[in-house]
Amino acid sequence: MRGTVRWNGVMGFEGQSESGHRFLMDLPKEHGGEDKGMRPMEALLLATGGCSSVDVVMILKKGRHAVSGCEVQLEADRAPADPKVFTRLHFHFVVRGKGLKPEVVERAIALSHEKYCSASAMLGKTAAISHDFEIVEE
Q1: I need a labelling partner for 129 at 20 to 30 A (CA). Which of 13, 49, 55, 87 fits?
Q2: Is the distance from CB of 87 to CB of 128 less than 8 angstroms?
Q3: Which residues contact 66 (CB under 8 A, 6 or more apart)?
């Protein structure tokens, strides 16, 4: 896997993945940025949520469960001193579908965090990771 990050001359950066997709990162104005993109640590947090959500949906679909939506709300705390690593991550999943059983959703989330999600496995080295979920019947 490869990627490139280019500085825009102020305090903004554009990241481009090997697959050609791009996103902007920037700092707030009070730190010299133009506030035109998300902060790099915000991107990392969202990427972790994306990684885990992909796993949850794939596990549920593979088990032939009628999942129709998945959202994860994320909360994180960071260390007060540099490097300001994540020290706590909480994932609140909202899973939509028909006839989804709580134990099945719980198992899919646990498998993501314990076995499949590379991002949460890495961040779990410095952060306590927790999760909960709700199921919305459709």
Answers
A1: 13
A2: yes
A3: 97, 98, 99, 100
pLDDT at 56: 98
Distance CA 22, CA 56 (A): 25
User: Counting beta carbons within 10 angstroms of the beta carbon of residue 89, is it exposed (0 to 12), middle (13 to 18) or buried (19 or more)?
Assistant: buried
The bridge status of strand 22-25 relative to strand 13-17 is antiparallel
pLDDT band at 13 (very low <50, low <70, confident <90, very high): very high
Q: What distance in Å separates the CA atoms of residue 95 and residue 92, rounded to the nearest whole number?
A: 10
Side-chain half-sphere CA neighbours of 99 within 13 A: 4
Q: 90, 127 in Cβ contact below 8 A? A: no
Q: How far is CA 132 from CA 9, 71, 107, in A?
A: 42, 12, 11
Q: What's the pLDDT score for residue 29?
A: 95
